[in-house]
Amino acid sequence: MPFADVFLSPFVLALFGLCIGSFLNVVIHRLPLMLERGWKMESADLLGVAHEGAPAITLSTPRSRCPSCGHAIAWYENIPVASWLWLRARCSACRAPISARYPLVEVATAVLFALVGWRFGAEPVALLWCFFCAVLVALAGIDWDTTLLPDNLTLPLLWAGLASAALGWTIPLPDAVWGAIVGYLSLWSVYWLFKLTTGKEGMGFGDFKLLAALGAWLGWKMILPIVLGASVIGAIVGIVMKLSSALREGRYVPFGPFLAGAGLVVLFAGPERVLGWLRWS
After folding, report:
1. How far from chain centre, in Å, is Cα 134?
2. How many Å separate Cα 36 from the centre of its chain?
């Protein structure tokens, strides 16, 4: 059996996805903290004032610790999903609860990677689409927590989509370029129309960049289906959260997770099927 058939099989990609999902948990938690610290230091430098903020943090240092007691997480306590189950969702030192979101992110990433293996088969391009899925998971998690879509993730995703198309790995380059243009300008136009009529900002610039990135990977024809799907699901979730008092006063439901989710649906359903649903084909 060829090596690629084994390594790029849905089962192996799922195991790989569990490990990547564990890393994505770190990205979701730490990247906003890293950005916030950087912004504060830059502001202090511009103002010429001393800055004594949080200690330096990266994606690799310091070691992961329990936020309640500071217990350093041992390697055997950091095995994707298994450690959470073994610890019964509690810190081994202080017994503080560990959020179920950690294994959920790991399992979701594993499922997405397995679906990529099923969708694209044992082809090297499958790894490229695994990257696409992983970045969307990270962006969805960060936006849900902080209503922030960092340029550190959206712009590399956009350029990777354009570069992959230029190299002939994904979609035709004109579709990718127009996908990026239409994706960005569509939400940019909605943003300014809403702001000019209400005086308020309805979304952030990160949403424009994320939709541009999705267009670069999936093509301009998928922009409207993505926006429609994300809008409907986002509205439903927002109404449910409002009625259940899960949405605090003055807060809003971020749009990024729904854009990411709609993009993933388009990826796995396939453009032809999506256009068929809309009866455009």
Report:
1. 7
2. 19
Buried b / exposed e over 42-81, threshold 16 CB at 10 Å, is eeeeeeeeeeeeeeeeeeeeeebebeeeebebeeebbebb
State the alpha helices, DSSP H only, in the chain: 3-7, 10-47, 82-86, 101-120, 125-146, 151-166, 173-198, 205-218, 223-243, 256-269, 271-277
CA atoms of 101 and 105, how far apart (whole Å): 6
What string of pLDDT tens digits covers the 281 residues of the chain?
566 677 889 999 999 999 999 999 999 999 999 998 888 888 877 877 766 666 778 888 888 888 888 788 888 888 999 999 998 888 888 888 989 999 999 999 999 999 999 999 889 999 999 999 999 999 999 999 999 999 999 999 999 999 999 999 999 999 999 999 999 999 999 888 888 888 777 778 999 999 999 999 999 999 999 999 999 888 888 788 877 777 655 567 899 999 999 999 999 998 888 888 877 55
- Provide φ and ψ at 72, rounded to 5°: -70, 130
Separation between Cα atoms, residue 28 and residue 142, nearest integer Å: 5
Instruction: Give this prediction's pTM.
Output: 0.92
